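Example 3.2
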Amino acid sequence: MGGTRLVHALAAALVAGLAVLAPVRAGLAQETASDPAFRVELPDTTLAGVEADVSVTPVEPVPPDAEVALAVGDTRHALSFDGTETRTVSATFAGSDASLRVLVDGEPAAFALGDGAETMTATTAEVIPAWLSILPPIVAIGLALATRRVIPSLLAGVWIGGWFAAKLSLYGLWAGLLSVIDTWVLHALVPPDGGTGHMSIMLFTMLIGGMVGIIYKNGGTPGIVDRLSGWAKTRRRGEIVGSAVGTIVFFDDYASMLVTGNAVRPLTDTVKVSREKLAYIVDTTAAPMATLLLVTTWIGFQVGLIGDATSGLSGFEQSPYGTFLNALPYMFYPVLTVIFMWMITASGRDFGPMAKAEHRAAVEGRLTAQPSSEEKGGGDEFQPREGVPHRAVNAIVPILVLLGATIAGLFATGSGETITDVIGSADSFSALLWGSLLAVIVAGAMSVAQGLLSLGETVEAWLIGVKAVLEVLVILTLAWAMSDLTQTLHTAGFLASLLGEALPAGLMPAILFVLSAAIAFAIGTSWGTMGILLPLAIPLVWAILDQQGMAGPDGLYVLYAGVAAVLAGAVWGDHTSPISDTTVLSSATSHCDVVDHTNTQLPYALVVGGVTLVLGLLPAGYGIPWWLGMLVSLAALVAVVVFVAKPVQEPAAAGATRPGPAQTASR
């Protein structure tokens, strides 16, 4: 009921606010002219008070002695041209009526705006208030938490964002609704730049989902449960197995989530570990591990961003890779959150919503808070038919093929002198596609060759697995659409603009961690946050150090801690956001509701994030050795486990049942 009332209140507020918001974004007001001398390109959406790139291109070569300037409001940006090359300036628009002019020797010159349909000497740029850029993700996250329905919540967020990107008017509201499918969802699947990363993720998710369907139906997954149940007869041991598998599969976050959740879920179901706890383990061993270790698919991306951001720093001589290595000791959150997960799983203790979920699973026997597919009668299709033997090898071999082929693909597509260089530069998407395809083929071939499944039954099993991941594919697509919208609306730019340069250098690592975490939580992507914030943060920290006379060896620790803070904060936000692809995939492979996963994981992430901020980054920014901050932080987390977390009661007869779909059939 509370969620319904919130939806009605939000809808009423949006409708009531149309009349107020409609005039905020001005239409084009221009003085028409003929024969444009320049072409001017503006962003589709410009925020008041946030820098935006404006490109100016001469139609014909500009005379050498001509003085050309782009005037945005009262600010002039001098331009120098060599022929008809394009010049781009970062301009800040003061408000919705900010004027835009091209001046030649102080006099307005005619220019064509955008596609050249209109020629003018002056225009009023279309600008929206910067704070509106954060509303779409806030609405999506708020509705998801309130209604526990992620898909309609994301749709509402994308609709509102599309409205803002179109025009703040009644027509823009209608256009924004239509643009949800024909623009934002379409761009999420087929980006304008031609990138295939999103489609690759969807394809290998479908392939691995299909593989999971096959190894359930051929008795392989029940065989793994039978083998592991000999040792992992308690909930604590089941969680340790999950933590170990996730830690071992560290080289890629997507591979880790897809393998760990699908491989471990039957075992944790058997010993009555809640799906929320499994999702927490899967999520915590994915991005936090991938951002830390030197042989992962993340390293090339992170080092490349650092190299771009440090290349123009006067007096900074460190190499990008060296900068990353020096920043690693300050990566408090990824290190601490993985260690904290091991503390929790090894001790068998929990607190907050997670403790309630674990008690529900252990005592009441309900693995999920929401009715799951098997509880609704939809789990039987995953169970092998009667008489199919439970052979662990039929699941282990395809999983090993998946891992082996993916690793081989990384080496085949990467280059460099060291393993780190090779993995960091590899085409991880192609490697995952190759690995998942071969795993499906091997799983199917083994099933048919042993007479466990016919060819038709193998295809049917694959389709059952694909159907099981259909919801996650829809959620992923909408999450990508939301991420694309937040970039169009410059959400991260607005949040980053809240920083000023008149800040103590010692506070910068802590501030950057909070800002990076907030951006990643709002836009649902760690890589996107890193790509947006690192190029802004590194020069900012260096400029502050220079102003305070610390831009040298004595102040490098602040820069290293700042780099680590951005990377770690991005992982925190991605780790906790309900619209993050890692949150969605962790939930999907664990067969856990996304909102339940978010609600149970968030307190743990907040505890580790708070310890990181107060005991790690704040002291590090003021010169306290990183190792001392790490030791104090670990002591604080031990205290939380000992004095706050409580042991969860073991079920009276663990292992007596074999739940599924991830259920397995009894012999």
